[in-house]
Amino acid sequence: MRAKTIFMHSLLIALIASGCTNNTTSLNNSGNSGETEKPTNQNEETEKPDQNNQSLLAYFLPDGSNAKFKGEGNEFAQLDIDFAHPYEDYVILHEDNGGATMRRIFKIENDSVLKMEEKMVDMNENFPSLQEIKAMEPIGIYLRMPIEVGTSFDGWEIVETDVQVETPYETFKNAFVIEQKGDGFVNRKYFVEGFGEVKRESIMKMDNGDEDYIVTSTLESVTKPK
Q1: Is there a domain that residue 31 lies in?
Q2: pLDDT tens by residue, 35-62
């Protein structure tokens, strides 16, 4: 039962929020006018990104992009994700699964991507200010260097590299896979440089001998700003 609770955690979040409606399809950052640009004044605080930052940033789509994922196995597996890079070394995703919108904030560091926030929001809610994000304590690790088999973080481990993965969008030949295992379940995420996540897969062994319960979200389309 504990394993099933862990496996279904993200789906339960969506179920709890499924009564919420959301007809807005674009990000609202009107309350942070001027803060979305990277600092240009030499007196403003800024950090020069190094090569590691740039390579880890490559596992997110560019600012203003949108990715849609085909869902199978659960009504909340279909995803619509908007990407924003409002501040230096920070990425904000709004992930709509048809029942709720989840805002995820990531900080790009030298050898890792930190999870700063994961919360349900209304798409009309403004981005947090840079000061508010800097005051947040990390809640986990999303990715960690080096990108090689055996690298582990936050209950996940890189288990394969140079993997071919088929998606409705295209067939990728250079994905790497991170995996999280528990009692009776396996969660996997497939990453491709230049795109980030292209597939999510959750597999749960059923106690009654039925076939495995499998939920997947697979990249279907990508829209990038011109």
Answers
A1: no
A2: 444 433 333 443 443 444 558 999 999 9
